[in-house]
């Protein structure tokens, strides 16, 4: 089911919903919510209508009304396309799932794909691919890496990260949860291979096959970082690099869900997760990633390395020599 499916099947309900949408576009969200409520009296099983009502209530300041609408939505939307569970969790009215809300994220980006680049780069000042690419290039020079044999761009979207990686990679693969995003980037001819998949599921099928993995603004939809890294590290070759971004917060919590339905990760907790995953931290920086609703979004940018087998073996030999002595 496409998230953009807004027809209730009732002509009068659809007409009232259209008027409600016009009121919302004009900034009168309270009136839009009232009219949307009338539409739902005619079509009480209309999931997309409850999603709209929740949005209008939230924007009008009626949080309790929004929560009530999203609870009804949660009961109707078995597939989780509309993200009711996330919306409730973001308002402390429920618990978010521990992993990616797959159906919601897939539907979100299927709908967003046609205007993705214009909105993100043109309007929101998105800088993550540029910053991550510069960090990777600097680490390549420091480590003496001339090129990467294979790179996997997780959450490749429309190829903004891939465009920057292409010149330094022999074989470039893109993975994305959204078929519409895959279709958009396929037209550009950036990647040697494209796969539609949820990233943890895709990583779990791989073993030591990539010497670079990137994830530009992808893990912000995944929740806890440790399960993602636990799947990612085995898929990296020994000595391979991973470069990714997160939205940041300064609190003690490992992560929390923002009203944007993106996760913000704690700085200290992110460092700990990298260490637990067995990665060596090469770069760990904070920077403004983009604007969101007029406010700058600060993020964490990481380049880390999987230890080389040769170094581990050498250390084991040295330890054995000491024991023998």
Automatic annotation (TrEMBL):
Domain Methyltransferase type: start-end pairs: 152-241
InterPro entries tied to this protein: Methyltransf_12, SAM-dependent_MTases_sf, TPR-like_helical_dom_sf
Listed CDD domains: AdoMet_MTases (cd02440)
Pfam families the UniProt entry points to: Methyltransf_12
Protein name: Methyltransferase type 12 domain-containing protein
Organismal lineage: Bacteria, Pseudomonadati, Pseudomonadota, Alphaproteobacteria, Hyphomicrobiales
């Amino acid at each position: 089911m496409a998230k953009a499916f807004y027809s209730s099947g009732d002509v009068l309900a659809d007409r009232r919903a259209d008027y409600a949408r016009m009121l919302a576009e004009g900034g009168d969200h309270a009136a839009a919510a009232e009219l949307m409520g009338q539409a739902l009296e005619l079509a009480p099983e209309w999931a997309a209508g409850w999603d709209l009502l929740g949005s209008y209530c939230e924007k009008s300041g009626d949080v309790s009304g929004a929560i009530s609408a999203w609870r009804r939505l949660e009961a109707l939307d078995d597939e989780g396309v509309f993200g009711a569970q996330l919306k409730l969790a973001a308002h402390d009215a429920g618990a978010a799932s521990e992993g990616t809300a797959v159906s919601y994220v897939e539907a979100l980006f299927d709908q967003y794909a046609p205007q993705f680049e214009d909105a993100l780069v043109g309007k929101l000042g998105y800088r993550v691919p540029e910053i991550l690419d510069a960090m990777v290039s600097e680490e390549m020079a420091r480590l003496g890496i001339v090129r990467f044999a294979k790179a996997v761009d997780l959450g490749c979207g429309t190829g903004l990260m891939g465009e920057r990686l292409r010149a330094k990679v022999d074989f470039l693969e893109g993975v994305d949860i959204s078929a519409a995003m895959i279709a958009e980037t396929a037209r550009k001819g950036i990647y040697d291979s494209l796969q539609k998949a949820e990233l943890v599921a895709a990583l779990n099928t791989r073993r030591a096959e990539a010497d670079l993995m990137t994830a530009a603004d992808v893990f912000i939809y995944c929740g806890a970082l440790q399960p993602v890294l636990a799947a990612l590290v085995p898929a990296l070759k020994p000595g391979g690099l991973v470069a990714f971004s997160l939205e940041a917060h300064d609190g003690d919590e490992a992560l929390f869900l923002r009203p944007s339905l993106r996760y913000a990760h704690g700085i200290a907790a992110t460092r700990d997760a990298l260490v637990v995953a067995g990665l060596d931290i090469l770069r760990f920086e904070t920077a403004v990633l983009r604007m969101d609703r007029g406010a700058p979004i600060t993020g964490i940018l990481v380049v880390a390395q999987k230890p080389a087998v040769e170094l581990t073996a050498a250390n084991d030999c040295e330890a054995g020599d000491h024991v023998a002595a």
